[in-house]
Each structure stands twice: as C-alpha cells, then as structure tokens.
Amino acid sequence: MSTAAAGHHDHDDHDHGPAKGWTRWLYTTNHKDIGTLYLLFALVMFFIGGGMALIIRAELFQPGLQLVDPLFFNSMTTMHALVMIFGVVMPAFVGLANWMIPMMIGGPDMALPRLNNWSFWIMPFAFLLLLSTLFMEGGGPAGGWTLYAPLSLQGGNSFAFVIFSIHFMGISSVMGSINIVATIFNMRAPGMSLMQMPLFVWTWLITAYLLIAVIPVLAGAVTMLLTDRFFGTSFFNAAGGGDPVMYQHIFWFFGHPEVYILILPAFGIISSIIPTFARKPLFGYASMVYATASIAFLSFIVWAHHMFTVGMPLAGEMFFMFATMMISVPTGVKVFNWIATMWRGSMTFETPMLFAIGFLVMFTIGGLSGLMLAITPADIQYHDTYFVVAHFHYVLVPGAIYSIMAATYYWMPKWTGNMYDEKWGKIHFWVSTVFLNVLFFPMHFVGLAGMPRRIPDYNLQFADWNAVATIGAFGFGFSQLIFVWVIYKCIKGGEKATDEVWEGADGLEWTVPSPAPYHTFEKPPAQYS
Amino acid sequence: MSLISRVFLVAILSLTGLAARADINMPVGVTPISKEVFGLHMLIFWICCVIGVLVFGVMFYSMFKHRKSKGAVAADFHESTVVEIIWTAVPLVILIAMAIPAAKTLIAMEDTSDAEVTVKITGYQWKWHYEYLDSGINYYSSLDAEHNAARQVGSGIDVGQFENYLKEVDNPLVLPVGKKVRFLHTSADVIHSWWVPDLAVKKDAIPGFINENWALIEEPGTYRGKCTELCGRDHGFMPVVVEALPADEYDAWVAENAPVEEVQVTESASATAVASVDDDREWNMEELVAAGEGVYVTHCASCHQADGAGLAGAFPAITGSAIATGDHAAHIDIVYAGKTGTAMAAFADRLSNSDMAAVLTYQRNALGNSVGDVIQPSAIKALR
Questions:
Q1: Which residues contact B57 (CB under 8 A, 6 or more apart)?
Q2: Which of the listed residues A24, A28, B60, B61 has the most CB atoms within 10 Å of its CB?
C-alpha cells in the first residue's frame, strides 16, 4: 500500500520539489515546511521563555532582593507565561498538526495552504512586538499574563503593543484552527469515517473548535482594556461605572478553555505513542473521543473556579465547584484507558515512550492536585499561592511540553529520514525528569506553607525549598540543550529510518517513505474505501 | 543505570532530609473554619494519595511485567464496556462523597451574620487601612520600616537577621479572641487580596466592591499573612499581621485607642511627630523637609524611588519634574487629588495637613530639587 501512497516522488528536483534558497520558507505553502517553521519557532521561544523563568528563579534563589527591580520581576513572570503559552505550546501543537494531520488522514496538504503560510508568518511579528516592549520606556507588561484590570491599565504606553501582539496571535490561531477544521472535514482519505481518525486528529479537531470559540472572547476583553487605557472608556473602571470583576469573568471564559487547548492535542499524541510501544491497539477508542468532547464541553462552564476569592454568591461557588469536580471523570477515563492499553502489551521503552510515561505519571499528579483545588473551601487557602504554581506547571511542563517532546522523538525519523540518537534521547528524558521534579515538587510545600505567587522576595521559612527549586530550574533549563543537540544531529544524519520506523506503529503516516517526500498522498490511499 | 540510580538516591535523601525540618503543609489555624478547611484538605489529599497509589501501582506493575524484553506477547483486547462503566462510576461516587462536606464548609464560610465586631479593610498600593466600624478606630498598616530598608535591591543589609522578614508591620490589626469578627474588603486602587492562613480568610479587595467574610479566633497570638493578588511593583511587600487579644485586653485596647472627637489619621513614626502640631502655625523649611523625608519614604519612594528618579515610563521622576518645581497649585493638586488613569493615588484622606505640606516641601527642596520655597500646612487645611 505504501507504494500506492507516495511511490512516485523519489527525486526532489521534480517539478513539485521545494524552492531553493531562503524564499522557500517565506513563500512556502507546503504543510511540511510550515510545520517545520512552527516547530522551530516554538523551540526558539522555548529558550526565550525559559531564560525569563531562570531570571525569576535566580532572584528567588535566596531571600532578599539581589538581582532585579520588583517591577522587572513582575514583567518577567508576565512575559514568561505569555511566551510559553502563546509562543511555545500553541505554535508547537499547530506545527505538529501541520506536519501530521494531512499524513494521518491521507490528504495531500492542508485545505487552505496560503492561509497556512499567513498564519505562521504573523507569529514572528506578533512576538517581536511583544518582546520589544521589554526595551521600551516603562518596560513590558507587569500585571500578570491575565492582564487583570485595573492593574494592567497602570503600565506605560507599551501596553498598546502588548494588546496588538495578542490580537495578532489570536488572528494566527483562529486562521490555523479554521484550516485544521477544513482539512479534517474535506481532505480525509476516501472512506475514512470520523470514528476511524487517529486520536491526534480528533483531539485537534475539538481543540480547533475551542480556539475558534474563545479567541474572539479574549480579543474583545483586551480591546476593552485598550480603550479603557487610551480612549477614556470605563468598562473595567469602578470609578467610571465599570466592573473590574467582569474583566475576570470574560478573561477566564477564554482562559479556561485555553487550558484545554494546551492539553487536548497532548492527549492525542499520547494516544498515538502508547499503543505503538505497547504493540497493542488503543483501549477504548470511542470513549477517548467522548471523553475529549466532554472535557471540551465542561471547559466552558467552569471558568469561575479561577475566581473563588472574588466574592461570588454562594450558589455560584457551589455550581463552579461541582462542575469543576466533574472534569476529573472524563480525565480519569483517559488515564485509565492509557493504562489499560499498556496492560498485557509487549512494551519497549524508547525515548518517545519514556516521555509518554513521564507525561502519564506527572500529568496525573497535576490532575490530582487539580482535584484538590476544585474543593472550594480548600481552594480559598490554595488560591494564588505556589501550590497553584506547582499544579499548573505539573500539567503544562510534563504535560503539554513532554507531549511535544514525545511527539518530536516519535515522528522525527519520519521528518528527517534519520533515527535520532537513542542514548542521548534517553539521557535527555532522565535528566529533565529528575530536575523537573526538583524544580516543581517543592513548590507544593512552600505554597501550602503560605508563600504567595508572583512575589520577588520572601520570608526565611521558604528559603530552603526555593533554593532547591532554583537548582532544579537551572538543571532543567540547561538539560534542554541536549534536546537541541539531538534534534541537530538527527537532521544532519544518523542511522537511516525505515518507512515504518517503529515495530508496533500503526497509521497512514508510517506507510509513506522516510523522510516523508515533499508531497504525500497526491493519490489518496485506498485502504479505507 | 548506576549513575541514574545514584542521582535518584541523592535527590530522594536530600528531599526527605529537608522535609523533616521544613514547614511543608497548610497550617491547621485557630478558627473553627480553618480547622474544617484543614480537615477537607487532608481528606482530599489522602483520597488523591490512594488513587495515585492504585493507578501508579497498576501501571508500574504492567511496565515491569508486560515488557517485550521479558518475552511478553501483546494481547489484542481494546474494549470492555463493563470496565469502562465501572471506572466512570467509581470516581463519580468518590466525588459526590467529597462534595457533601465541602459544600457544608462553604456554606458556613459564607455566613457572616451575627458578627460582634466589624472591620473594614481597604487595600492600597501597598499598605492596608483598617477601620473598626463599631469604635471608629482607624489606621494604616504597612511593612515595617527596617524590613523595608533591608529589602531594597543592593541594600547590603542581611535579611537573615529578621525573624519575620517581610511579615512584620508597623501597626498590626488587633482583634478579640472568642468573638465573631466580620471583615469588609475593598480597595482604593487595584485589586488586592487579604490573606491570613491561620484564619483561613482570603478575600479579594476590589475597587468599587465590598466583599465580606468572617473569623472566630480561638487562641490569642500573632497571625501573619500576605497580599495574594498581584497589585503592582510592591505586591510582595504588603504583609498582614493580626494580633489576637483576650477579650478584656481587647476592650482595654479599644478604650485606649478610640478617637475622642475628630478622627485623626496617624501613621509612621515621623508622621506622628508632626501630626499633633497645630496646622495653623508657620513652619520653617528645615522642619518641613525633615518631617517630609519620612513621609516620602513611606508613601512615595516605592514608585518614585528613594532618590526621586522614578522609573522611566512607569513612574515619573520627582527630581527636575515640572510639577514638583512648578507652581504650588498644580503640585498640591496632584498629591491631594491624585491623577486618574494612573497609579498616582489621592492622598487627601491619607496624609494629615502637616504631613502633606512637609512632603511637598521636601520634594521641592530635596531629591536634587532646590526651588527654595515652602508649602505651609495652612495651605492644605484651606483646601478641605
């Protein structure tokens, strides 16, 4: 079947090969090129956002202010979050979608290739705009990534740049999502039903709908901030008849689905990797799809659990507590399904599997602390402390970031045609995992003991654990250089990958040659029709 | 593998070693609510631990048993309706069991009726203002001056010498033991959040809103907390300190501090020194500058900086500023009434006449400015 799929593109210099020179990347409408651009962009931003995290951790190494002004510290926490969320995790997932969705569904490319080019090329400019604020008078945004009014309105004029960069990121995300939806509905191999799609495609389909639904809400919220700040409106200014709490409701109506935007594609990746290395089909495919859809639905009705201390009516607090607890049911189903997939499999532990298992263990830890946070009376003690910081870093770093790393190791042989260095991949996993827990686990302790978030200096009682966390942060940060080294080596050469790459691999992407030719599935695969 | 296992061993040993001496859990606290919350916290924590042990236990068993290197051959099952229904239903039952006690505590937390003492707490950038609605006592509470000096970047002061570093204030909130105290929370500028872990009281202070909650303190003592909602540059430096006194001592404190006639705003040591002096007297420049320095450090230096240089783009400089070296009316107005749409607050209610005159004169004749004129307390008094 693989010959039918992509047989006739053995030579690159054919009329459909990539253009030569740097304009190839500027003008490209090829899903693989654009996927590569997204992934490299995310990798660069990962180090920029990581550098900011290291500034934060360096200041927190000891009590007392040693390195930075508190205002700059606040701007680091704000920018770190914006860069990691909008500049790393989201573009990396879009990059993976670009590379893999057409190949997984047997389509020749994305449905809207020119739009695809545009959605990528907005991103570097959006982030140039955002990062440039750090060098402007008054510095970058320092009111937290949530940009809560009225605090965010106190900053300098660079705030306008922040708002416009968020608009650009939003436009990019919405266009990317429309493209993904259009691709999934129109480009599937003949006969491939929705319930035959790989789970990565399913989770991205649902994620794309979440993005289309909530990005405009964010755009509205930040536009109101813009007019409040520069044009004298009072949407969120109590003195002018506005409502600062309304901002939080609008923001989190975007913000909570956003949390799932950052994790649903990860579920899809893990659902691809675990069956491969367990050599056994995914357990409960249908329930995985329904669980993803339930999580997406619930994500729209739990937003105010970020706001249990703002003074809601008792009935509101009750509703958001129960709704939030409900999310653990479909999430639990997913974890149980993955374990049932491993059960009585024939497992091997190559690097992608190690990262997938790291995801499974540590995402579950983050999920369990999330269940604790759902208990409103306890949440009132946890809220805005390092316990929350520990929670969301456990779901985002060994969650979203590990899934992206797992995906990179898993599909890189297909992208480059070379096997990556297995020994260094495993070293990367183990070193990262040890330092990651040294970094984030102690944050549970200081948070419970009473250390608030977003503070540059603290009481001596928190000193030991903060020192430990900082050591973990530097260890984790620098061990990511191994990742770059492995990727570089794999692009340059290495043992040639077979078409199937992995012994237990299943799916259309493994039926095309390695490296995947510039155009795949110009003739649709026949196995579904 | 031996290297990896050694790294693990060292990490685990150092973690357990530190755990033995560090404070790593939520405080039980000293109110009925804080004890209930602690109970809920430990209950859900242990539930999570049991779930974790079961889930990870099955998973690691499978990882050791069902590996290819041990000759495991993959089975082919991929569905079981019965199992899937069980692991949807069981978590649901656990959640319902958990939701009932949580809802009970939540209802109790929100019941602020029948309070015996009511304190209105107003958040400012970056201090708290306490107002006892029953007795009329009111005052500001800000970070202890010595801690404030030590926490500046490059202060050279060893912060290790302070036992309660960044958890000490000039004027703590004094509360009675054994009486239900209701707190009303609001803010004068941005959103703050007033948190004392031992009381399990955390509520956002939001401009234009008044939130409420309550505490019944059962043991005398000093309870320390922090602002927990990011509120700008000095968010990390606005601690909360509650001093809980036995009822009779509390009554004595109220009797001693209750205002006799007009409410007089008194705060830092320097301010107290001049607050009692008659506003109508002519002050000379030395007096005003000397008094103004203390007021400046307490109220202005966080934004405009100790040397008056400001932070470019965020907070304007005082040194060489057109307002601070220009005519009196504009200078007085911006301090008295603030500037809307910026972080510059109105100080009309926060500074006495003499303090405001002193800090204005200080700004005109120190920090690199030398206008050479004075602003008298009588000029401020005339505005009121």
A1: none
A2: A28
Q: Stretch A385-398: mean pLDDT, rounded?
A: 96
Least confident residue range of A67-81, A119-133, B7-21, B98-112: B7-21
Q: Which CATH class is domain B285-381?
A: mainly alpha
Q: Exposed, middle or buried: residue A492 (CB in 10 Å: 0-12, 13-18, 19+)?
A: exposed
Structure tokens at B204: 């956002």
Look at residue A324 and give its three-state secondary structure. Answer: helix
What phi, psi does B124 have (nearest 5°)? Answer: -125, 160
Amino acid at A91: P
Q: Residue B267 and residue B350: Cα distance in Å, rounded?
A: 9
The Cα–Cα gap between B334 and B347 comes to 9
CA A270 remoteness from chain centre: 13
Instruction: Give the residue among A442, A476, A435, A361 at the shortest CA–CA distance from B7.
Output: A435
CB A399 within 8 A of CB A366: yes
Residue in this structure with the two tokens 């707190």, named with its chain if needed: B183
* Band of pLDDT at residue B154, cut at 50, 70 and 90: confident
pTM, rounded to two decimals: 0.89
Alpha-helical runs (H) found in A402-462: 402-416, 422-448
Residue from B79, B94, B187, B210 to probe the interface with A (highest A Cβ count within 10 Å):
B79
Q: In the predicted model, is pLDDT for residue B7 greater than 70?
A: no
Closest CA to B296 of B343, B253, B335, B349: B335
* Chain B touched by A132 (CB under 8 Å): no
Cα dihedral: A448, A454, A458, A459 (round 10): -30
Dihedral (CA of B315, B318, B323, B329) sign: positive
**Set of chain A residues whose Cβ sits within 8 Å of the Cβ of B183:** none
For residue A150, whether the previous peptide bond is cis, meaning omega lies within 30 degrees of 0, is yes
- Res A98: pLDDT: 96
pLDDT tens digits for A429-481? 999 999 999 999 999 999 999 999 999 999 999 999 999 999 999 999 999 99
In the numeric block, which tokens belong to residue B218? 């059962």
Q: Distance between CA B318 and CA B296 in Å, rounded? A: 11
Strands B221-227 and B192-196, bridge-based pairing: antiparallel
Q: State whether residue B93 sits within 8 Å of chain A by CB.
A: no
Q: Cα(B375)–Cα(B284) distance, rounded to whole angstroms? A: 10
A430 touches chain B (CB under 8 A): yes
> Tokens standing for A308?
């249990």
Q: Which one, of B290, B282, B320, B167, lies nearest residue B236 by Cα?
A: B167
CB contacts of B74 in chain A (<8 Å) are 278-280, 344-346, 504
The mean predicted confidence, pLDDT, of chain A is 93
Q: What is the dihedral of CA A397, A398, A399, A405, to 10 degrees?
A: 90
CATH architecture label of B3-68+80-109:
Orthogonal Bundle (1.10)
Class in CATH terms, B117-257 = mainly beta
Position B20 pLDDT exceeds 50: no
Q: Which residue of the set A229, A306, A391, A444 is catalytic?
A: A306
CA A263 to chain centre: 6
CA nearest to A118, candidates A187, A162, A168, A84: A168
State whether residue A423 sits within 8 Å of chain B by CB.
no
CA distances from A473 to A12, A446, A455, B157 (A): 43, 16, 17, 27
Domain spans, chain B: 3-68+80-109, 117-257, 285-381
Q: Which helix (H) or strand (E) holds B203?
A: strand B201-205
Lowest-pLDDT range of A395-399, B253-257, B316-320, B345-349? B345-349
Q: If you search the block for the tokens 């922090």, which residue do you land on?
A: B226
User: For residue A400, how many C-alpha atoms fall within 13 Å in the half-sphere facing its CB?
Assistant: 25
Question: Would you tell me which residues 7-46 of chain A have a C-beta closer than 8 angstroms to some C-beta of chain B?
Answer: none
